[in-house]
């Protein structure tokens, strides 16, 4: 992880209806092609002694995909996340890992485990103890997978929207109601920043509908904002330098723009 940014909900890409309509269908198709879909039965992960091989399960359900950008967002902003990922790929050649690509696997995986191991015979209910233990293990695997992905991506983008962030009127502190966003921001704030080893070529959710509504304090002071001006300049400069669809050059241009604005 080399750099981290935040993108405002007011970005023209999201706000302009015409532009959104232009890309929305294509972004959905792009997301469907790239999302992680697993259909293996749990029996594929059982060792001879009947215990589940969690390493193989992690590799299949939460694979370490090669990506340039890690995108953190609220599940309510999934359409915007798809739109941004598609736009970054189309205009800059950047591959974006959208975190909801693996969030949804959690529900599917837990359902499979509960059906196989925790179903109370003769009912449609599951064992509370068994389900809780399964959830603890699966969430642990998910967090490890996210740490690996964050560490491997060159930069991260947080989608700063009213769905993902709330600001206290009294203290101006920033909060989120999503444990997933909280976890990802904490990881991003604590993971060691890596210097880019490549040569520069210019002169980087809570998916559950629950009544329990926690609030987590998060720190975004080190996330540099990509606003409309920066985003537009990034796109135009990439086009001028013929760096469109060149991921590394595109990111270097973004870093240089931030440096020149004394924001990065």
Structure description:
The chain is an alpha/beta fold. Helices cover 48% and strands 11% of the residues. It has a five-stranded parallel beta sheet with strand order 3-2-4-1-8, sandwiched between helices. Strands 5-6-7 form a three-stranded antiparallel beta sheet, with helices on one face. β2, α4 and β3 form a beta-alpha-beta unit. About 3% of the residues have low confidence.
Topology:
Elements (H helix, E strand, L loop, with lengths): L2 E6 L3 H4 L1 H18 L19 H8 L7 E4 L5 H15 L3 E3 L1 H19 L9 H25 L2 E6 L5 E2 L6 E3 L2 H12 L25 E3 L5 E3 L1 H13 L6 H14 L4
Helix pairs in contact: 2-4, 5-6, 6-7, 8-9
List key phrases describing it.
3-stranded antiparallel β-sheet; Toll_tir_struct_dom_sf; 9 helices; alpha/beta; 5-stranded parallel β-sheet; 11% strand; 264 residues; 8 strands; TIR domain-containing protein; globular; single chain
How far is it from the N-terminal to the C-terminal residue, by CA?
15 Å
Low-confidence stretches: 200-208
Number of strands: 8
Q: Estimate percent helicity.
A: 40-55%
The main β sheet shows up as:
5 strands, parallel
Radius of gyration: 20 Å
- Helix-strand pattern, N to C? EHHHEHEHHEEEHEEHH
Q: In what range is the share of β-strand residues?
A: 5-15%
Count of DSSP helices?
A: 9
Judging from the principal axes of the Cα atoms, what is the shape? globular
InterPro entries: Toll_tir_struct_dom_sf
Protein name: TIR domain-containing protein
């Amino acid at each position: 992880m080399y750099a981290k940014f935040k993108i405002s909900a007011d970005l023209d890409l999201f706000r302009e209806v015409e532009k959104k309509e232009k890309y929305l269908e294509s972004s959905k198709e792009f997301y469907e092609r790239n999302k992680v879909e697993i259909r293996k039965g749990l029996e594929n992960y059982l060792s001879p002694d009947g215990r589940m091989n969690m390493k193989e399960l992690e590799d299949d359900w939460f694979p370490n995909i090669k990506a340039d950008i890690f995108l953190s967002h609220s599940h309510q902003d999934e359409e915007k996340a798809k739109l941004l990922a598609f736009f970054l790929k189309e205009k800059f050649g950047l591959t974006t890992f959208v975190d909801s690509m693996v969030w949804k696997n959690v529900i599917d995986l837990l359902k499979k485990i509960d059906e196989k191991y925790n179903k109370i015979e003769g009912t449609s209910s599951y064992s509370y103890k068994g389900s809780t233990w399964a959830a603890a293990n699966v969430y642990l695997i998910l967090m490890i997978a996210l740490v690996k992905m964050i560490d491997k991506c060159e930069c991260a983008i947080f989608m700063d929207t009213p769905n993902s962030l709330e600001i206290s009127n009294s203290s101006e502190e920033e909060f989120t109601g999503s444990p997933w966003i909280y976890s990802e921001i904490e990881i991003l704030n604590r993971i060691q920043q890596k210097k880019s080893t490549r040569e520069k070529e210019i002169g980087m959710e809570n998916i559950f509908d629950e009544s329990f509504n926690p609030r987590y304090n998060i720190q975004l002071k080190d996330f540099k904002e990509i606003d409309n001006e920066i985003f537009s300049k990034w796109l135009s400069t990439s086009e001028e330098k013929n760096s469109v669809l060149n991921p590394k050059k595109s990111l270097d241009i973004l870093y240089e723009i931030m440096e020149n604005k004394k924001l990065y």
